[in-house]
Design a protein that fits this description.
Structural class: alpha/beta
Largest sheet: 6 strands, mixed
Distance between the termini: 88 Å
Strand content: 15-25%
CATH class of the largest domain: Alpha Beta
CATH topology of the largest domain: Rossmann fold
Helix content: 25-40%
Mean pLDDT: 75
Number of domains: 3
Low-confidence stretches: 1-58, 60-77
Radius of gyration: 23 Å
Order of helices and strands: HHEEEEEHHEEHHEHEHHEHEEEE
CATH architecture of the largest domain: 3-Layer(aba) Sandwich
Strand order of the largest sheet: 7-6-5-8-9-10
Number of strands: 14
Shape: globular
Length: 378
């Protein structure tokens, strides 16, 4: 019996020592080993193949040259506005085969003439996975965070071989772990670097805006996949400035909250301030998604992730791509609101969509809410 007690004590001591070591590493200053483990230096990152096609990515300081016609293009005509529109039923399913004549585009409540209309589901997508990774997540989410990270690999599996994806992690600041690439091995390697967090801060506003602005000039299907608690600690930007910057960038944000499971367990123990913080976090995720033309998801269990990733992939893949030339030619640098409607061209009333049994279908239209007009250079 005494040998059994000794074995148990020895095991507990070993586990406690390991835990203390991890906490010590996580709390070390940036100049020590925690920064090295959590965020390897650039020289440790895998080298890119010289012959791999690249997109012109502002994620890099040097401007890569476009070497393939199939890659995303950049705006060359500031007088053309491009909108990616998804029409979903009340179950989140894409509604196909809606004719061009049923779409009405309003800019500042003024109807616009549609210049082009397409539904190319095979066009490549450009995705940035922006993942919150800090020590505070361990406090809230514990071992479940690793389950969430593993579930994130599922989204990568929904991508096609020509889709580009970048991985960005953030705590005090955003760090590009993997630039846009079609090499899934590089993406997996980047995500594998998310092991031991170095800081407790979550500067979500700064990370989202930085990524959105870098992607703002990319045309075609693009999006930010934000995996976060929705909480922000010490960002340089305010919530209002973040909203404005996201609206101007025009990059859809698909937000996935990683707080819900913790809230289910801890609801009875929360104080009023913590409840308010969580409600504010949810509101921020919803706001960023809605105003950018994306969607927000609040899974309670990791088993919900596969269906969420499929929904995001379907929403991005099955879109109506619409462009128009603004009737307002002023280059005043002002923000202009966009509204997309489905109408009956004969009556001008809201379009009625029915299923195979002729029952009306409730639907929602997902599109960006506006853009910033160019400013005349004096």
């Amino acid at each position: 019996m005494k040998y059994l007690r000794a074995a148990v004590i020895l095991t507990l001591v070993s586990l406690l020592a390991g835990l203390c070591f991890q906490l010590a590493v996580a709390q070390q200053p940036p100049s020590q080993s925690s920064e090295t483990v959590a965020r390897p230096k650039k020289k440790d990152a895998p080298k890119e193949a010289a012959d791999e096609p690249k997109i012109p990515s502002e994620f890099k300081k040097d401007k890569d040259k476009l070497v393939a016609d199939t890659l995303p293009t950049f705006r060359s005509d500031v007088n053309t506005v491009q909108i990616e529109v998804a029409v979903l039923d009340n179950k989140g399913h894409f509604i196909p085969r809606i004719p061009q004549g049923n779409f009405r585009i309003l800019e500042d409540n003024v109807p616009q003439q549609v210049a082009s209309f397409s539904t190319n589901a095979d066009a490549p997508m450009t995705i940035s996975m922006v993942i919150e990774f800090n020590a505070r997540i361990q406090q809230y989410w514990g071992q479940g965070w690793y389950e969430t990270l593993m579930a994130s690999y599922g989204f990568v599996e929904t991508l096609k071989k020509d889709d580009y994806v970048a991985v960005v992690a953030f705590d005090m600041r955003p760090e590009i772990l993997s630039d846009f690439t079609t090499d899934r091995m590089k993406t997996q390697e980047a995500m594998a670097r998310l092991r031991i967090p170095g800081f407790s801060e979550s500067n979500m506003y700064d990370a989202v805006v930085d990524t959105a602005q870098r992607m703002s000039t990319i045309e075609g299907r693009k999006a930010i996949l934000l995996i976060s608690t929705g909480l922000d600690t010490f960002s340089k930007l305010t919530f209002d400035k973040t909203r404005k910057a996201i609206q101007e960038a025009g990059v859809p944000i698909y937000a996935i909250s990683i707080l819900q499971a913790y809230r289910i367990v801890a609801e009875a123990y929360m104080g009023a301030i913590q409840r308010m913080d969580f409600l504010q976090a949810d509101n921020q995720m919803n706001t960023f998604a809605r105003e950018s033309g994306g969607q927000a998801f609040f899974p309670r269990f990791t088993a919900e992730y596969p269906s969420i990733y499929r929904a995001i992939s379907d929403a991005l893949r099955n879109q109506y791509s619409i462009s128009y030339h603004p009737s307002n030619p002023a280059k005043d640098g002002k923000y202009r609101k966009i509204k997309v409607e489905l109408v009956n061209p004969q009556t001008g009333e809201a379009l009625r969509i029915v299923d195979e049994k002729q029952k009306p279908i409730k639907y929602s239209i997902i599109a960006k809410g506006g853009y910033t007009a160019p400013r005349e250079v004096e």
